[in-house]
Request: fold
Amino acid sequence: MDSRFIDRSIGASFSTAAVLYVFLIPHFSFAVVGGLFVGILLSIFNLWMLSRLFEAFLAAKFDKKKIAYYLGLKFPVFYSLAIFVFYYGPFSLGALAIGFNFPFLVIVLKAAGRVILGERFFFQSRYSEN
Reply:
């Protein structure tokens, strides 16, 4: 797997969430569907911040400013936003919990698909040697 796997998984999670939102909104209340969608968005934001933080931390050139930026973005901003949504949002907490786990399910399914089908069925990175 290449380094863009998480970015592609984030894109797949967002597009799947948008499709789920469109098809579930006529059948369930806004509290449930909105909670699912907001949970997915929070998880995507968290996963994006963590991937950028690990990239900055494990880079060849150790940049303390970039690491401090992502840590400052993750802890005060993300957790403040999450607490605000949990307390003041009109969303179902069960739907938020399911939505928060959804991108991780997408990652597991994408990884399982790669293992079962093999890497040969997926596009090679343009930077790969093959």
Notes: Residues 30-58 form the longest helix (29 residues). The chain is about 75% helix and 0% strand. The mean pLDDT is 88. Helices lie at 5-24, 30-58, 64-88, 93-117.
